[in-house]
Specification:
The protein contains six helices and no strands.
Length: 161
């Protein structure tokens, strides 16, 4: 939805990995919110980052943070997606999804990528601090960190371990 500024997106609360599908208690407020948005009518293009999912927000922030020094000149030339600058690099998704990258290091998710755990963990904790209601664990946020920094969480490893 990031590339479609004329759409407004709503996101279902993150569920447990093997948890139940759609729950009425979560869907009902989303449907009511969607109805409110429809009644308001078109209010202009959505701001940048407004339509990204929590995973998309963290992935985009990580991408820019870890590449800004090495790719500074290319990034200053225009808004080329970083994933296109290095088609075999860390940010290349290929046939994968950003979730496989962003969830690495969290309990229950295997090593599908080798990110900088410090940067990724701080971004996850930052998102959870700003949006504690977004996950399935009470007030712990989408990524379940409750805003705890990665070095305080037992499941993080240093990069390249």
């Amino acid at each position: 939805a990031e590339g479609c500024p004329h759409l407004k997106t709503l996101y279902y609360t993150r569920r447990k990995k093997d948890g139940p599908g759609l729950l009425l208690s979560i869907m009902q407020p989303l449907l009511l919110k969607a109805g409110e948005l429809l009644k308001q009518g078109y209010t202009g293009p959505a701001p940048i980052n407004h339509n990204l999912s929590p995973v998309g927000q963290v992935w985009k922030a990580y991408t820019w943070l870890v590449n800004r020094e090495d790719r500074k000149e290319e990034l200053e030339e225009g808004l080329a997606p970083i994933r296109c600058l290095d088609p075999k690099g860390e940010m290349w998704m290929g046939n994968r999804f950003p979730e496989e990258f962003v969830y690495v290091g969290l309990p229950g998710f295997g090593p599908t990528a080798n990110p900088d755990y410090c940067v990724l963990g701080v971004l996850q904790a930052s998102f959870d601090t700003a949006h504690p209601e977004s996950g399935y664990l009470a007030q712990k946020g989408w990524f379940g960190t409750a805003g705890a920094l990665p070095w305080t969480l037992p499941y993080y490893k240093r990069k390249f371990d």
